[in-house]
Design goal:
Layout lengths: L1 E11 L4 E12 L15 H8 L7 E6 L14
Antiparallel strand pairs: 1-2, 1-3
Length: 78
């Protein structure tokens, strides 16, 4: 199982704070898969890095009771 509970993440740019996740909660049960589709610059890589424990959230809890596999193929939109 992978669970995000009230997870928030933001970064500072030169002039402002950019919020990537704002109190996000979801659960993916064992045996299920999840796909992440979103426009460029919206935090997909940050989310995947947080799932894999490569980045920590600013707030909230991430519970991992499973193996996390990275995408085998990334394709841009046409």
């Amino acid at each position: 199982m992978l669970e995000f509970e009230n997870v928030s993440k933001s970064f500072w740019t030169v002039t402002q704070r950019k919020v990537i996740l704002d109190r996000v909660s979801f659960k993916v049960e064992l045996g299920n898969s999840m796909g992440i589709l979103a426009p460029n610059g919206t935090g997909k890589t940050t989310l995947i890095n947080m799932m894999a424990s490569l980045e920590n959230p600013d707030e909230g809890v991430i519970r991992r009771k499973c193996n996390i596999s990275f995408p085998l193929c990334l394709e841009g939109s046409i």
